[in-house]
Amino acid sequence: MLNRNMNQLFPPKPAFTDQNLSDQAERVFIITGGASGIGLELCKILYAANATIYIATRSSEKIATAIKTIKTLHPSSNGQLEPLILDLADLKTIKPAVENFLTKETRLDVLVHNAGVMMPPQGSKTAQGHELQIGTNALGPYLLTRCLGERLQATARLEAMPRGSVRVVWVASMISLGAPKGGVIWDDAKGAPKLSGDSMSDYMQGKVGCIFLADEFARRVEADGIISTSVNPGLVKTELQRHAPAAMRVLMGVVFKGPKYGAYSELFAACSPDVSAEKSGSYIIPWGRFGCIPEDIAEGMKPGSSGEKSLGKKFWDWCERETLSYP
Q: Mind listing the UniProt keywords for this protein, alphabetically (predicted)?
C-alpha cells in the first residue's frame, strides 16, 4: 500500500504530452468542467492539435472566457471551441444539452468526465436531492454517458475508424487514500450508497463510484471497440479544493502541481495509443500510467461466489434507477 501511494504521490515526469500528441483534426471531444483547472488545460492541448471541443459546464460566461483565452494562446489552430451548457448537479439539464449537441455533430470521439465537486458545505444537495458530491461526480456523468451512448457507438462504427479510438474517461481520484473499506458503503435495504457523514469520505465514495461505472461501461461497450477508463489525475491545484479547510488549502498549495499535469493524466486516457482496446476498464494514474486498483475495491467489481451482483453492478443499477426519469 505504501509503495502504491508513493508511486502516485511522486510520479515520474509525464511521457505523453502535447509534444507527442498527433493531429486531432475532425475529432470531436466533450470535456465537462472544461472552463477551468485541469479541464481548461486539457482543452488548450486538444485545441492546439486542431480538435473540435465542446466545453460543458453550467456557466456560459465562464465558457466564453475560456474560449477567448484558448484562442488567444493558439491563434493558428484549425480547431473549434463550442459551448455546451449543462449542470451535472441538475439531471434535467443533461438531456437538453445532449439534444443540442446532437443537432450539431454527427460524431463524438471522446467524452471526458472531468467536472467535479469536493467537500462542499455540509448538507449540500443536487437539484434532485442527492448528496452533492455523489450526484455531481457519479450520477450526472452516468446520465450524460447514457444519453450520448448511441452517438459514441455510431462513431466507433464509422468506416476506417481505428478500434479503441472512441473513448470515455471517468475522472476518479487517489482512492487508496480516504476511501472507506470496499470503496462504497452499501445499504442493502435501500439498494443505495450509504452516506458516512464525513465530507471527504463521501467524496471518495463518489470517486470509487466513477471507477465502478468505468468498469461496468467497459463491459457493455467492449463489442463496439469503445474504451472506458478511470483516471486519478494527480495532486494538482484547482478550484476543486475551494471548499476544503483553510489549513488543507495551504498544504495543497505547497505540495500540489499545476493543473497542466492533471491534464496530462487525462490526455493519456483520452488519446494515447498505449491505451488499447485490451486496456479498457483500466485505472490510470499520474501523469499518464497504468495503475492498480486497491484489492478491497477491485473485489467489489467481481460477482459474489453465489452469483450475486458485484458492488460495482449494484452501483450502476442504482445510477440507472435514479436517472430513469431523465431519459
A: NADP, Oxidoreductase
The three three-digit cell numbers of residue 61, written as one number? 460566461
Q: Is 327 within the bounds of a domain?
A: no
- Please check the confidence at residue 31 and state whether its pLDDT lies above 60: yes
Residue-wise over 255-285: b if at least 16 C-beta within 10 A, else e?
Answer: ebbebbbbbbbbbbbbbbeebebebbbbbbb
Residue 147 contacts residue 92 (beta carbons within 8 Å): no
pLDDT for the residue numbered 246: 60
Q: Span 183-197, mean pLDDT?
A: 96
Task: Say how far apart CA 120 and CA 15 lie, in whole Å.
Answer: 34
Q: Has 203 been annotated as catalytic?
A: yes
Q: What range does the domain containing 239 cover?
A: 2-321
C-alpha to C-alpha distance for 15 and 287, rounded to whole angstroms: 8
207 is catalytic: yes
Could you give the CA distance from residue 168 to residue 110 in angstroms, rounded to a whole number?
6
Candidates 44, 207, 237, 314; catalytic one: 207
pTM (two decimals): 0.94
Residues 6+ apart with CB under 8 A from 68: none
**pLDDT of the residue at 9:** 74
What is the Cβ-side half-sphere exposure of residue 186, based on CA atoms within 13 angstroms? 18
Contact 296, 182 (CB under 8 A): yes
Helix 37-48 to helix 259-271 angle (10° resolution) is 60
- The residue annotated as part of the active site, out of 47, 54, 203, 283, is 203
316: CATH: 3.40.50.720
Q: Please state the domain count of the chain.
A: 1
Classify residue 254: in a domain, yes or no: yes
Residue type, 94: I
